[in-house]
Write a structure and sequence with these properties.
Layout lengths: L1 H19 L18 H12 L13 H13 L10 H11 L5 E4 L2 E4 L3 H25 L5 H23 L3 H23 L2 H29 L5 H22 L3 H20 L4
Antiparallel strand pairs: 1-2
Amino acid sequence: MKTYIFKVLFFGVVALFAFNADASSCGFSRDLMQGSRGEDVRCLQQYLTGVGYGLSYPDGVFGPRTMQSVMLWQANYGLPAYGTFDYTSRAKYSELTGVYTGGEVLGSQFVWQDSEKERAEMRIEEALIMIEDAEDEIDDSNENTSKAEDSLEEAKDDILDAVIAFYVDKDYDEAYDKADDAYENAEDAYDEAEGDGDEDNARDAIDDARDAIEDARDEIEDADDDGADVDEAEDLLDDAEDTLDDAEDEFDDEDYDNAEELADEARDLADEAIDAIDW
């Protein structure tokens, strides 16, 4: 039920953003190009759709279709058709529309005047996109995603709070803070679902440490049979084994950075144990 409510609210918020954004009065403070995301991208998409360069539902993501529409629009007005909505494109947009919200034209440059409401609205939009990306990454992951799913649930709780603060309470500072929390939790979910690189590095480090300890044990036993003093070496090897146990515990707890660090320490102790053999 909670997931259903979130999805209904998600699409409702996106629709509200699309309805409230006046496509003839977008505020552009940066160059927009493939890979750009945000409400300014959505507003550009709405503008292009409204003037005949049809796009699918504006999603706030500057992808290949948006780039193609920009290129067609630029070519139509005699601009370099590179597909980047840059300074010259913003100037032409200003000339064609003559209207801005949240900003003003000074000479030939557009200066964005941020407001609490616009700032909160932008962060909500960014958080919604990040939540959707995190959901996709979790769906595509072949790893254990329980930790990522927990972070995603926190993100969804935060974005619901942000939407309530924005639309119900009109508390735009609170809306921004909650949306920012949602973005960070969704980003954590994405990273946790995406990368098993840290896990692989930790596993490799543990395997290397285990091999180093076994090699050190063999050398110490041979040295002991040959009459060498191995007391210090055995103490260091015991420390190495204890440290490796700690690394494996951290690995089981999915703290891969700490597991890797402890495994490296265990390997170093094993090397020191060999060096400590007194022949």
